[in-house]
Amino acid sequence: MVTMEAQALDAYLQEVFPQLSGYRIEQADAESVRVRLNVADRHLRPGGTVSGPTMFELADVAVYGAILSRIGKVPLAVTTNASIDFMRKPAAGRDLVAVARLLKLGRILAVGDVLIFSDGQDQPVARCSLTYSIPPRR
Amino acid sequence: MVTMEAQALDAYLQEVFPQLSGYRIEQADAESVRVRLNVADRHLRPGGTVSGPTMFELADVAVYGAILSRIGKVPLAVTTNASIDFMRKPAAGRDLVAVARLLKLGRILAVGDVLIFSDGQDQPVARCSLTYSIPPRR
Amino acid sequence: MVTMEAQALDAYLQEVFPQLSGYRIEQADAESVRVRLNVADRHLRPGGTVSGPTMFELADVAVYGAILSRIGKVPLAVTTNASIDFMRKPAAGRDLVAVARLLKLGRILAVGDVLIFSDGQDQPVARCSLTYSIPPRR
Amino acid sequence: MVTMEAQALDAYLQEVFPQLSGYRIEQADAESVRVRLNVADRHLRPGGTVSGPTMFELADVAVYGAILSRIGKVPLAVTTNASIDFMRKPAAGRDLVAVARLLKLGRILAVGDVLIFSDGQDQPVARCSLTYSIPPRR
User: Fold this and answer.
1) What is the pLDDT of residues C75-129, one digit of tens each?
2) What is the spatial distance between Cα C108 and Cα C136, in angstroms, rounded to a whole number?
3) Which domains does chain B have, with CATH numbers?
């Protein structure tokens, strides 16, 4: 079911998105993809909260990874829609861990959702659902 | 963890929302609430598809039920936001089954999400996340 | 810019969605489409509030109308995503009026948003954005 | 109607969010707030596209600015929900301009939406709606 494993995904994401740093694909199987973000100062807002754009980016990377894990290298898939709920303040000084699942992988559109946790915590700090437009394959 | 069981929830929803018909709360536990909708002609669009508003209503009932299952009878909780993805055409002539989980139950806001399936199918036809404003308790 | 005028749109919607009742396309021009819903008992929740699914349906009809006004009869366009904010309680005993604008009309996807008002009021009761998948044209 | 003018808003945002750079509040009146982002290399993805998180951040700043323009300095307002549609590829080498309007300013929640344009273009590249939780005022 999985076309790319965690390690191959990780290498590919670093290759196509060299701007991203601090991310690591920890796991990729038929059920879900797990991504860890090593939170650094540049991700923070005053008071030590992780910024909204950082959580959005993490969610985007996680679902994008879930798509790639299934269909392989498709560099041109683009995010067309995202809906995100910020539910709790992330714990200070901890990594963020995103767990994404793919709900639909169609010919034209893919849909996934993701829960984001402060590492070691039970309750999610955010949830996000995302839609991607998949370019026609030749 | 559960304040109201499935049967009590079912009775309460029928009492406060007498306009709703065809719904049944099948299960309510600490993890999730499952609601079945007996699809009838009034829920359909041309071609036999279940209408979008019907799936929205089912998602709303399911997450509302999940809130009630935890905090008991709070008739004034109101939906403030919903985001829904319609992913597949529901199978003709089948019930819809919604499985909702509560992701946050705060003092002011509650957030839940839900997957909707055609009965007996593995792949969800829709996903929805909803936010509710909870009135102050005296 | 407008392929179908309000009256033609109205007739077409009644033809393809005979289940819908109480809707009237009041205006359709290059900027926006305005749809009126004659609120009836079946649209209400206890306390006289218009139900969420009713507002969702109105938003869906309005943006769908905006698409049709531009590209003509495309019965197979389907809603793939909707995000709705319920912001105020609609005034009792008044029509709802939706004003939709088309933000993107692509080859594959169309996106529009809509504000819903209680007739005669300045402040919107709800906002909604919707995405539609447009079938390939032969 | 406007409690803080564009210049005061600009100064305040730089004070409370020193991490943000490249933003300028250009205009703030009763109708809308306009924010310009000077797009730099750090905002780009391969191919010269502005990244999704950058557009999300711009939308967030613009609606937050619209709230502040009306109620003054409320540093603790937090984003609880956002829904964003990415509709077109931003033009290369141009600023992004966001125009936000406030749709609801309640005691507990505020809702706004925003269109984002490549500077000088008519068609929006993205739309976003956001909800904020407003802390109780003493």
Assistant:
1) 678 999 999 999 999 998 899 999 999 999 999 999 999 999 999 999 999 999 9
2) 7
3) 6-133 (3.10.129.10)
ipTM of the complex: 0.93
Kindly report the nearest CA distance between residue C108 and chain A, in angstroms. 9
Q: What are phi and psi of D115, to 5 degrees?
A: -110, 140
Amino acid identity of residue A110, one-letter, is A
* Rg for chain A, CA atoms, rounded: 14
pLDDT tens across D79-130, in order?
A: 999 999 999 999 988 999 999 999 999 999 999 999 999 999 999 999 999 9
Q: What is the DSSP string of D3-72?
A: SS-HHHHHHHHHHH-TT--SEEEEEE-SS-EEEEE---GGGB-TTSPBPHHHHHHHHHHHHHHHHHHHH-
Cβ–Cβ of B103/A88 closer than 8 Å? no
Residue A16: in which H helix or E strand, if any?
helix A6-16
Helix count and strand count (H, E) for chain A: 2, 6
What is chain B's length?
138
Q: How far apart are the first and last CA of chain A?
A: 21
DSSP designation for C45 = -
Confidence at B135, pLDDT banded by 50, 70, 90: confident
Q: What residues in chain A have their Cβ under 8 A from chain C's Cβ atoms? A: 80-81, 83, 108-109, 131, 133
Q: A29, A38, A22, A23: which is closest to A6 by C-alpha? A: A29
Give contacts of A83 with chain C, Cβ < 8 Å.
83
The pTM score is 0.95
Mind telling me how many Å the CA of B59 is from chain A's nearest CA? 15
What lies within 8 Å, CB to CB, of A106 at 6+ separation is A134, B87
Contact (Cβ atoms closer than 8 angstroms) between residue A23 and residue A95 = no
**CA-CA distance, B29 to A99, in Å (whole number)?**
23
* C63 confidence band (pLDDT: 50, 70, 90): very high
